[in-house]
Write a structure and sequence with these properties.
The protein is mostly helical. The chain has helices at about 40-45, 50-70, 125-140, 160-165, 165-175, 190-205, 230, 250-255, 265-275, 280-295, 300-310, 315-330, 330-345, 350-365; strands spanning about 20-25, 25-30, 40, 75, 85, 90-95, 100. It has a three-stranded antiparallel sheet. A two-stranded antiparallel ribbon has the order 1-2. α2 packs antiparallel against α3, α3 packs antiparallel against α5 (about 165-175) and α13 (about 330-345) runs antiparallel to α14.
Length: about 375
């Protein structure tokens, strides 16, 4: 029991409180806060699969608990419908018995078949928890053999109408439950942000738009509705723009460079910034590639993007700019393939869907 007393330090409004640890002979007990309400598992058994909006709202509600645990170097390990409850219109994480410190070689590992990530039996980490969250959401909205036939996979949209009706949600689940930990959402905050976007789309399609500012993209750049060319033909100028990563070492220089409008002068300015910061700034090199694309210098832009991809194969911004390059050069099919990669990474964003639509139009695919 002594090795579990670190749980007393876990304090969060969405996590059941730990009050005491009691040892009675060889048996140990954890005294926890009483949580009223109903277990999500009980609701699932009584009602069957939940409406998509309701299920997503429960997952969004519990994600802050995982942000807190991960920030404090804990993993929950055994998330599932039986381990969180609805109390007073909010959800709370219960049953802290499986929580362990990250990278603790001596800690016991708990998990449940059908929810547990493939790598979690050896070394559960943050993304292992996020996998269980994705699996739990899938179980809440679909009736499928998640512990047998689909233990480490998902049904297809052809098999599950709810997936066919909600492509963004399907893509979200694919990424959340990817076999490769590096391909999943990397933080609970990232997962939450994309799931909010998915929910907004689902609600908007059933009622009315629910606009919200993206943390990574601007809105589209067609600001003048009377711009006949922009409204009638594909032009990469009107695609949303990636926001500058303010954590990048060159962020301040790049923000100042926004005042340079002349295309050639802008390339020269960005070349100077990229040279100044070198490999320390990915953002500067991406902005230079974007400026080159705007000037029709696709080959030079491609070399920069290839170099960045070599450094980090999982940087989804590279296929975004590659897609823009292909689109600008008239290769709609190649552009669509690149934008589709962005859509996989960012299923809650509008920008990649708009870009896919642009690319499909250029490719002659109107479906």
């Amino acid at each position: 029991m002594a090795e579990r007393q670190f749980l007393a330090a876990v304090k969060h409004p969405k996590i059941v409180g730990i009050y005491d640890f009691i040892q009675n002979g060889n048996e140990g007990y954890i005294v926890m806060e009483y949580v009223g309400g109903r277990m999500i598992e009980s609701m699932l058994k009584e009602r069957g699969v939940l409406p998509v909006e309701e299920a997503i709202s429960y997952i969004l509600g519990i994600l802050p608990a995982f942000s807190y645990l991960h920030a404090n170097k804990f993993v929950y390990c055994d998330f599932k419908p039986a381990n969180f409850m609805l109390e007073n219109d909010d959800v709370k994480l219960i049953d802290m018995g499986g929580v362990r410190r990250i990278a603790d070689p001596s800690g016991d590992i708990y998990g449940t078949k059908g929810y547990m990530a493939p790598e979690a039996s050896d070394d559960p980490v943050e993304v292992s928890d996020l996998y269980t969250i994705g699996r739990t959401l899938a179980v809440l909205i679909m009736d499928f053999k998640y512990q047998t036939t689909f233990e480490h996979s998902l049904p297809t949209p052809a098999e599950q109408p709810v997936l066919a009706q909600n492509e963004a949600l399907y893509r979200f689940l694919l990424r959340a439950t990817h076999q490769d930990p590096d391909q999943r959402f990397q933080t609970a905050d990232e997962m939450s942000d994309q799931l909010y976007g998915v929910l907004r789309e689902i609600v908007a399609l059933k009622s009315s738009p629910r606009p919200a500012e993206s943390i990574v993209f601007t809105s589209d750049n067609l600001l003048d509705a009377s711009d006949e060319h922009g409204a009638s033909a594909v032009d990469i100028r009107f695609l949303p723009t990636l926001k500058i990563d303010i954590g990048d070492t060159a962020a301040n220089d790049l923000l100042r460079s926004a005042a340079v409008i002349d295309p050639k002068k802008r390339v020269n300015t960005l070349q100077h910034i990229a040279s100044k910061f070198g490999e320390k700034s990915v953002e500067a090199r991406l902005r230079l590639a974007d400026a080159l694309i705007s000037n029709g210098e696709y080959s030079d832009a491609g070399k920069i993007l290839d170099a960045i991809a070599t450094e980090d194969a999982f940087d989804w911004r590279v296929p975004w700019y590659r897609g823009k390059s292909f689109l600008a050069s008239g290769d709609g099919k190649a552009a669509r393939n690149e934008f589709d990669k962005v859509y996989f990474e960012m299923p809650g964003e509008i920008a990649p869907k708009l870009a896919i639509g642009y690319a499909s139009e250029v490719a002659g695919d109107q479906e």
